[in-house]
Amino acid sequence: MSWVSKTLNSTLGRKLLMALTGLFLILFLIGHVSGNTLLFKNDGGEAFNIYAKFMTTNPAVKILSYLTYISVIAHVIYSIILTRVNKSARPVPYASNQASTNSAWNSRNMGVLGTIILIFLVIHMQGFWYQMHWGNLPMVTYNGEEYKDLYTIVQFAFQQEWLVALYVVSMVFLGFHLSHGFASAFQTLGLNHVKYSPAIKKLGMAFSIIVPALFASMPLYIYFS
């Protein structure tokens, strides 16, 4: 067995992959939320539609997209494997379980939070990502060039109360997931220092609040405006 296989099949190797894919997905969230803020621009969707076309046609972005898909799949698979390994290592719970006092709620329920986020992600991709690539979208023209009018689809989607509620609630769960996962990823990679760890935790907490809040504000803004 090669060292690569040994690493991937070891608990440490799986945790490292979880950390690396998690950090890559954090970078993806930064880019995604930055681009989606164009929904706030009062230009009838021109900037957002141009951005959407760029993101689905640019070769470099396509490569990053494939890496994102791989990271999501790997993150999910290895989280399931690690959860099973942990349960099999301790099939009988401790007689006195004080988990609620020894660890935060989100750290004990990362699997549940991740499952909810995964379900949301499937709904999100079916509603927008799939539609942008293969849906029968209306077309608009800017400066003589045609673009798929994803902006109108987004506007229509977020007039539905249940979908707006789903997005807002899902972003709350994402925030809880990130609040533990951000600092945990750095710790797994060995970047754990008495001098820097507090700053990493504060940065992670700020990130877990700001980014989900920005995502949640978009459907709310569209619905109420």
TrEMBL record:
InterPro entries: Cytochrome_b-558, SQR/QFR_C/D. This is Succinate dehydrogenase cytochrome b subunit. Gene3D superfamilies: Fumarate reductase/succinate dehydrogenase, transmembrane subunit. It comes from Shivajiella indica. SUPFAM superfamilies: Fumarate reductase respiratory complex transmembrane subunits. Keywords: Membrane, Transmembrane, Transmembrane helix. The lineage of its organism: Bacteria, Pseudomonadati, Bacteroidota, Cytophagia, Cytophagales. It comes from the Bacteria. The keyword Cell cycle does not apply. The chain crosses the membrane at residues 63-81, 110-130, 162-183, 203-224.
